[in-house]
Amino acid sequence: MKAAIWTGAGEMTIGEIPVPEYKKDEVLLKIVSSGICGTDLAIYKGKFDENRSVPPMVLGHEFCGVIEEAGEDVTRFSKGDFVAADALLSCGKCYACRNGFPHVCSSLRLLGVDTHGGFTEYAVVNEQKLHMLPEEMPRLLGGIVEPCAVALHDIRFSGYKPGDNVFIIGGGPIGILLSEVLKSSGVNRLLVSEINEARLELLKKHGINVVSPVDTDFPAAVKDFFNGNGPDLSFEVSGSNTGYQSAIDNTRVRGTVVQVGIAKGETNVDLRRANFAELTIRGTRVYEPVDFEGAINLLSGGHINTEGVVSIHTLDECPQVFSELVNGDTRLIKPVIQIS
User: Fold this and answer.
1) CA distance 181 to 166
2) N or C end: fewer C-beta atoms under 10 angstroms in the chain?
3) How far apart are CA 160 and CA 260, in angstroms?
4) What is the separation of C-alpha 11 from the centre of its chain, rounded to a whole number of angstroms?
5) Per-residue pLDDT tens for 25-83?
6) How far does CA 165 lie from the centroid of its chain?
7) Is 308 exposed, middle or buried (0-12, 13-18, 19+ CB in 10 A)?
8) What is the CA 80 to chain-centroid distance, rounded?
9) What is the pTM of this model?
């Protein structure tokens, strides 16, 4: 079968690999589409854990497809079902797994990160990791269910309530999806901070209030937008040192800072205001099954505006898209590779 094969740092080629064999409790999934994530880019650049992602391999953990064949022990799905894959592979034995939090497993692995993933024609997935997609859902949107589930998990775990005022630092794919989910969930005042001009314009087209941190009046603009009090919730999505500091400095007294973005190295953040303002700081990681189902409902119900966010590319174009992304092509927000 055809696949986009990552062969080393900054290198990807289109080639042929064997169709995988499936076990009794697994399905052979004919991939429809697979989204490109920031983790994929880190692996592609050779900046991910070299003990986990080892070339040559097929990346891609945000994928959907149609069941081509099902193992004899599969009971919940049948040939022809349209499904999305939950990429998380938990150990089932650690403290988190034993206590109902397998998404933060101490040795968490992912399809497309630790094993072959979705930038190919077929993948094998355990039936327990599949979610049925409605027939009315546009098939290519199945490739963004996973990042939408991430956004829902961030919001659900934050303690967000309809009517809250929210500040998002970072207007990339997850920041935009967070904004779209919040817009459909009764948010009061919503402001997104972003430095990239193309993303700022896209956010504006989506009806989202924006501010740039490079503006000289940035602190005053944020303060004024939230009527001098600061937001109830701040989602730090950029993973940057300045983003962390901005979230802590701008959130209201006894507000909550949710850390979504993952730091790319050591951080140097002044946490004194977290004490003085009695802030709650929460970390988040990936998603749980309930978030996957919520994402499916929002997408199939037309509640997430993907215009200008999702771009569609062929499998043959996959190496070029990766190259363009790492070289900073700002036209690409959330590329999705169409397989079939």
Assistant:
1) 12
2) C
3) 14
4) 23
5) 999 999 999 999 999 999 999 999 999 999 999 999 999 999 999 999 999 999 999 99
6) 23
7) middle
8) 27
9) 0.95
